[in-house]
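Renewal narrative, Specific Aim 1. Our central claim is that a sequence can be written position by position from structural information alone. The example that follows is taken directly from our test logs and has not been curated for this report. It begins with the structure tokens describing the chain, in the order in which they were read.
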């Protein structure tokens, strides 16, 4: 089970990334890739694919989290259920959301054990579908958000992020770094892995 991010297509890539979730059951030859895209209706797409880490419109993906073995197997059913339950499968809006990052964050929040710190450039990750307060996708804090336009995130894994007009600025004290809108992480790398974060 893996989570990826790559710079978004076209002008959006200057500001943010596109995220997706890939699962593969033990013994399966192919992955199931789950994402929300803007050019299809419905916007939510789940498809079988040989390689989950292909380039996204020329942008190389960055691995945000990688779960294998028993932990991954335990999450796959929960991921499939969360994908099926996503309440906005036909909606996509690049800013402030709901978009691909809203979907990815929503699924992560609902799967026990799946803790992924999404990058500060994942515009829409803080668009909360179910209210104004939610746990962070990293599982170690809380996000308060008004329609994905104004908000704050505070967590052990995430640090402090302040969101204004859909873009976030933050600081990570645990692994010292600034988190800058459009640019990403400046400082100590968080690294991929379970709970990892990319730019």
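The sequence written for that structure reads:
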């Amino acid at each position: 089970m893996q989570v990826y991010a790559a710079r978004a297509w076209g002008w959006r890539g200057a500001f943010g990334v596109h995220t997706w979730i890939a699962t593969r059951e033990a013994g399966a030859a192919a992955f199931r890739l789950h994402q929300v895209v803007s050019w299809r209706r419905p916007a939510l797409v789940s498809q079988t694919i040989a390689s989950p880490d292909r380039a996204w419109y020329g942008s190389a993906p960055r691995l945000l989290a990688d779960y294998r073995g028993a932990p991954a197997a335990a999450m796959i059913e929960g991921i499939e259920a969360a994908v099926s339950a996503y309440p906005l499968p036909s909606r996509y809006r690049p800013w402030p959301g709901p978009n691909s990052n809203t979907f990815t964050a929503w699924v992560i929040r609902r799967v026990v054990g799946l803790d992924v710190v999404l990058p500060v450039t994942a515009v829409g990750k803080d668009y909360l579908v179910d209210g104004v307060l939610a746990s962070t996708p990293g599982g170690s804090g809380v996000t308060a958000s008004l329609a994905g336009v104004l908000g704050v995130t505070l967590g052990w894994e995430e640090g402090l992020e302040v969101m204004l007009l859909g873009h976030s600025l933050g600081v990570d004290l645990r692994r010292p770094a600034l988190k800058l809108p459009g640019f990403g992480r400046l400082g100590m790398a968080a690294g991929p892995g379970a709970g990892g974060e990319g730019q």
